[in-house]
Amino acid sequence: MTRDEIHDGICRRGVITLNISGEGKEDASRVEEKRRDDSYQPFTGNLNAPSHREALRSAKLSALHARLQLPIKLPLQTLARCLVDPSVDPRPGYNNEPLSILGQELLGYYTAEWLMTKYPRLPMPILFAAQYAYVGSSALSAMRAEWGVEAVAAPGPEVDPGLLQLKRQIPGNAMAEGEQMRIKHMPQARRVGSGRRNEEHNYRRGMSSRIVYDDQFGDLQTTLPVSTSDDTSPYPSAPISRPDETTPFFSQDTSSEHRPPPSDWYLPAQPTYEDPTATTLEAASATFVRALAGALYLHAGTPAAKHFHTEHVLSRHLPLHTLFNFAHPTRDLSRLCAREGFEPPVARLISETGRLSRTPVFVVGVFSGNDKLGEGAGASLNEGRVRAAAAALRAWYLYSPPAEEIMRPSEVEGKAGEGKKWKSQIVDIGEVIT
Amino acid sequence: MRMPERIRPEPKQPVWRVNDDAEAMDEMYDRFMGRVGEAVKGEVKDTRGRGMLDEEVKWLALTHKSFDHGRRGFNDKLAFLGKRIVDVQTSLALLNMPSSPAALPASQDDVFQHAALEGLENVTAFSKNAILDKTRLAKVATAYGINRVVRWKPRKSDNLKSSGEDVVLAHTMYSIIGALAMQRGGEMAAKTARERILKPLGLR
After folding, report:
1. What's an example GO cellular component term for this entry (chain B) (predicted)?
2. Nearest neighbour of B171 by CB, restricted to A106, A211, A335
3. ipTM, 2 decimals?
4. Closest by Cβ to A92, choosing from B103, B125, B200
5. Confidence grade of residue B68 (pLDDT, cut at 50, 70, 90)
6. Which residue from A minimizes the CA distance to B141?
7. Please, are residues B53 and B75 in contact by the beta-carbon 8 Å criterion?
8. CB within 8 A of B11, min separation 6: which ones?
9. How many CB pairs lie under 8 A apart between chains A and B?
10. How far is B103 from chain A (nearest CA, A)?
């Protein structure tokens, strides 16, 4: 039984009983299974989540696999592992954390390249916001709900493997008891490790530095581990123990030898498994979806991961024009025209009505020479002018090249992209800074 | 917009100058790319690093937002894309690295084993951040000579470290990868990331 499970992925011998009587009747189905195969002993051991052997017996899990049309190459056991959050069991091999990290990066890469090639002139803050809207935790959490994946009330080895398992906590947005601040703003809820000097929420963080320090959405990293506790010391060659020492890894002469760093310098020292930190449903949902993307990549390759991204992420529509918020659009437009060498923008009244009434409407256009850059309607001349400038700026930033010219970098990667000829994509110099 | 005459006193620090020599920039690109251009030998005039990107994009990839207050363009978006590529390649490289016994599951029976999941336990937030630490990236960048050609404006020209030189150098390396992805495709960018950034950092 074990060998079949391991090597055949979905085990054909284990019959999955469809639980017609509804949820909460796991005992009945397990009794039925036991009659079928008396040699099976449920392995509880020191598990916090159902064993991977249970995965083949779960109707919910198989139904999820079928509903999402996941490839056969993805075994049910890995799908079950994707549903277990690290807050349930932090030991390696039991949770979805590494799969989630890989999946998050893949989804982030595919989304970033799609956004950048489709909208080359998008400003950086909008790019961050759009990235979050497509593959951020809220979007992925909504996706999890749309897929019909339910979460357990509390994790344990007896729950159905087809449920999302997490140890819940009060979300950081909630107000702290007895305080006026939210929990996430409380001083002890410090995030450590990204290297920023001051990580409090209201300390100024520029847009550019977020690219190196923060995550793919420009937010402070929350997933980094806290400082090692007193009883674990890093390996002597771990980077954090000797921050100034360098390994000589580059020289002009590429044939010269260099001492390679020890093979596992990048792994933390012997880890201790204290009570794992609890997580919110939104975070755990996002981790699950990301882990699924990672698992698809590992088992079924890049085409499966890209297909997943196209079907589930890119199928969502985001009205990008609503993400813009201009403080001084007229000034920005003027600087933009100066930079690009257009004639200075001039606002002209196109049409108006009700000037002396309570509700006038002025339609104003912003022109560069004889070309209309943008048009806006407002209740006053000034409002019309400002709206027109904002519309012009949106039109500039939301420019999209013709569809036949757009190619995503990942299209020419790997085996699938071998024969394709790459078309150079537009590289924009950046938004106008005023 | 700039005032024609400066009214405020000049800061008490050495005058900061950046490279404006195209040849110095090209030499840096040659050093950085190495031989990755061999893969597109038929399509480019020059397989050295300088032939991989357009002239304007070469300058843009080295221009930080602090340079001239962002008036002449900056490399934020290129760095964003480049970091996404480097992140993916780091994870994939970690999958191939040998695992420490401490990181593996204790008893083999409990955990589902599959050939596709080999090396998965190496991918952790800790290892990712240890490898892509900005100080280490900055050291690799300095070895390539990127610090001599990057166009930026430090807060204190006599104390570059406290002005964030490490971040700017890491940012610039990411942006070169991003520029490669936009102009030459993902395969070239991924290959450059693996061979020219991750390999010096210790990942094969």
Report:
1. mitochondrial large ribosomal subunit
2. A211
3. 0.96
4. B103
5. very high
6. A250
7. no
8. none
9. 243
10. 6
Q: Give the homologous superfamily in CATH for domain B22-97+120-198.
A: Ribonuclease III domain (1.10.1520.10)
pLDDT tens profile B35-57: 888 888 778 888 888 999 999 99
| Parent domain of A212 | 189-229
Per-residue model confidence as pLDDT tens digits over A113-134: 999 999 999 999 999 999 999 9
Q: In whole angstroms, what is the distance from residue A384 CA to residue A377 CA?
A: 5
Question: Torsion angle, CA of B42/B43/B49/B52, rounded to 10 degrees?
Answer: -170
Residues 6+ apart with CB under 8 A from B132: B86, B87, B90, B201
Nearest to A410 among B70, B83, B186 (CB): B186
Name the pLDDT band for A49 (thresholds 50, 70, 90): confident
A81 contact residues in B (CB cutoff 8 A): 112
A138: phi then psi, degrees, rounded to nearest 5: -65, -45
Give the domain ranges of chain B. Answer: 22-97+120-198
Contact A409 B77 (CB under 8 A): no
Residues in chain B with CB shorter than 8 Å from the CB of A45 are 110
Identify whether A331 is part of a domain. yes
Residue type, A388: A
Residue B25 near residue B129, CB atoms below 8 Å: no
CATH number of the domain encompassing residue A347: 3.30.160.20
Give the nearest partner residue to B185 out of A101, A112, A409, using CB atoms.
A409
**Cα–Cα distance for residue pair B23/B32, rounded to 1 Å:** 14
Q: How many domains does chain A have?
A: 2
What lies within 8 Å, CB to CB, of A397 at 6+ separation is A119, A121, A122, A123, A126, A324, A431
Contact yes or no for B80 and A124 at CB 8 A: yes
Between CA B80 and CA A215 the distance in angstroms is 10
Q: Which two tokens stand for residue A382?
A: 């000034």
The answer as to whether A196 is a domain residue is yes
This prediction has a pTM of: 0.83
Answer yes or no: are the C-beta atoms of A168 and A157 closer than 8 Å. no
User: Are A358 and A334 a contacting pair, CB within 8 Å?
Assistant: no
| Residue of A266, A407, A421 for testing the chain B interface, max B β-carbons within 10 Å | A266
For B185, name the nearest residue in chain A, comparing CA atoms only. Answer: A409
Q: Long-range contact list for A35-40, CB < 8 A, 24+ apart?
A: A37/A1, A39/A1, A40/A1
Residue A373 in domain: yes
**B133–A contact, CB cutoff 8 A:** yes
Nearest of B56, B89, B84 to residue B178 by alpha carbon: B84
Could you give the CA distance from residue A262 to residue A169 in angstroms, rounded to a whole number? 38
What ranges in B55-164 are assigned the alpha helix state H?
Answer: 55-61, 76-96, 125-131, 134-144, 146-149
